[in-house]
Amino acid sequence: METFLIDICKGRTLLTLILCIWVPMEVMAQARNATFSSKRPSSLNFGALFTFNSAIGRSVKPAILAAIDEVNSDSSVLKGTKLKIIFHDTNCSGFLGTVEALQLIENDVVVAIGPQSSGIAHVISHVVNELHVPLLSFGATDPSLSALQYPYFVRTTQSDYFQMYAIADMVEYFGWREVIAIFVDDDCGRNGISVLGDALAKKRSKIAYKAAFSPGAPLSDINDLLVGVNLLESRVYIVHVNPDSGLSIFSVAKDLGMMTSGYVWIATDWLPTHLDSLVRPDPDTMNLLQGVVAVRHHTPDTDLRKSFASKWNKLKHEGSPGFNSYALYAYDSVWLAARALDVFLNEGGTVSFSNDPKLKDTNTSALHLSSLRIFDGGQHYLQTILKMNFTGVSGQLQFDQDKNLIHPAYDILNIGGIGIRKIGYWSNSTSLSTTEPEILYEKSFNTSGITPHLYSVIWPGETITTPRGWVFPNNGKPLRIAVPDRVSYKDFVSKDKSPPGVRGYCIDVFEAAINLLPYAVPRTYVLYGGGKRNPQYTDLVSQVALNNFDAAVGDVTITTNRTRMVDFTQPFMESGLVVVVPVKQVKTNPWAFLKPFTYQMWLVTGAFFLLVGAVVWILEHRINHEFRGPPRQQLMTIFWFSFSTMFFSHRENTVSTLGRLVLIIWLFVVLIINSSYTASLTSILTVQQLTSRIEGIDSLISSNDPIGIQDGSFSRKYLVDELNIAEARLVTLKTMEDYAKALQDGPKRGGVAAIVDELPYIELFMTSTKCAFRSVGQEFTKSGWGFAFQRDSPLAVDLSTAILQLSENGDLQKIHNKWLRSSECSMQLNEIDADRLSLTSFWGLFLICGVACAIALAVFFCRIFCQYRRFSPEVVERDVEEIEPAPRSSRRSLRATSFKDLMDFVDKKEEEIKHMLKRKSSDNKQEASPSTDGKFHSPS
Questions:
Q1: d(CA 456, CA 423)
Q2: How far apart are CA 710 and CA 736, in angstroms?
């Protein structure tokens, strides 16, 4: 038993010893397949890939070296780990760049800085996607690299997407509609110009022509390219090339005379990159670029940037030039990779590489594919990079959800003399502005409402006047202008045997507007239509839209459907659809003199004549002998006086003040009534009356009568589509003679009940027929005539300005008077009912007269009542007292006696009343005197 236990103990000891030996061997075996470090590595490899001998490369290399040195000397970042930078030169070759990139990845780099070429970036992105190595590019600006297809591609500079939108905003700001893009036909050039086209389309502009040339094209090819674009219409050139060969374009352009007044040259960031890379641009280079506008990456003027600029001379190697914005982005790319790597390691990340099972060497291949290994922590490291947020020498480094740097901004530069002038800024949130973007970012208000603004620009030719941006092509092709070949209303436009082959009102307006333009417009007129009937104007407009004609000039109505096809100028003639019907003279009527007033007006007027006569009689009866006499005579006086005032022929004189007041007011009322009656009767006796029941477009729609329309007019489509009138009711008429005959015949004899046409035609038609026809109702559409041009034609804008100038200086009216005879007949019919005068128009006058009569009577009777009380006070007292024993019959007799006395008193003359009151007053004094004396002498 003891021996057994001893054997067991020996076995356990042996097993423990075997395990202790096997585990280190297993670990060593795994180490052959993977590099593993459980602690911070002492050194790590960074890769850098770009073209050394280039405008960008000569600035980038010193910046990267300086960043590596600063990171290694900074104890707060990657403490205990040194960075080693491995450079590879792409030599401006896509093939060599790809090979160099593969060789770089073999060195187990944790991150690659570069490349500057978008074409190489496209290829390398597939490699780093497979090997999980983040690719931080400071120079690949192709917008398509932001696609989800390249998750390990991180752009540490601005995408050309934003640069192209900055240029589109400039094109809109200066009012240009078409540009010509000159670019290198590579990934960066094509994709950048594609974005520019999209950006311009949102501004209602476009790229008129894409002038592409191959990378490394000789000067002869560039010369041929510029000669071709110089024959085109647009004079706005967008140059999107690389910094090393771009100046050759301006050299050729200057030789061809394309750097003079009228030309516009806008360069992308390649031009400032080249100029910033030079220590001091030579005068010959600056002389090529006079008037050029360029965009440059905006980097805030912070203390970090100033510090970097101050020590640049110490950083650069022998023969290194000045630094450009790409040097700043490369410098910040190293710091971004280092800071992210520090966070990655602090979070427990490990740097290890493993073989890719998809990459296997074969005996028949000399490529060592197995040397390309996967960075195991690459995904974690990539996410750490995208979450970083710090301020570098180029500004704030923070990525949005699309992996683009936030707050993209550009400087807008203008080259003039021997220097570069900054004329403004652009950012994706503030557009064009003269204020630095970071200042606007700090403000709390909504920056979307800021009006775009730039400082003045000195353009080629040393002019500050903004170029028009286009000229007529120098290819010997004048504008082909379509003119409708009309068979009616030829005063507007018609064929002519003498040059230019057409004539009419519309042609004279167009020629006058063309003469106001500051440039010549070569043109030829082409008649459109067979000459036997008016052409279809919508078809004419569509021919312009299809590029069969450059413009259409004539009586072309601006409609909604047509504006979707072409651009119209400012209307030079107002127009609108109206309804025309035949009219006849109203026959005389024996009772026509009663028609000016309504029956209510007649009744009230007659009543007031009698009322005023009665009031004046009452006021004048006591003091005017002409208003006294027998009752019959007085009644006749009232009637005679009342109606004689109608003609101001009354012979009775008014004496009282109240009577004169009432009479003055009444005579004023009579004057107004007489004048209105005369005017209304005159209008009624000369009015014309409709021969049909059509009174406007509404009654025309509700009827079933045929409707005449002009051949080729848009009115057919409008009546059918908009007003739902049956097309069978429409009768096409070609000439003015057809118009007159159809209206005179009427529906019963094969004619029409009314004609619907545009106002200018109707005015000319009614003038030529001496007002035998009239329009009824109002214009039920509002439009105008304009000249049609192809979409986005700049000539339409300039001609609109010229038409407004013609209108302001009166020339447009002079042309109208020359061709179109003015109508002497009124356009609208006067209806009899509309001319009748009702009480509504005069109740104010009657009210004033009635109130005056009432006031005068009130004053008169108050005065009479006072006199009556003085004349007979005992009678008044009897009226007031109530005697109880007296029977009712006695009281009625008493009241009747009092009223009779009052009426007798009123009927007396004023002189008699005054005499009686005077005599009664003296009698009262005599009676009061004895009684007073008797009281004085009575004994006490």
A1: 7
A2: 9
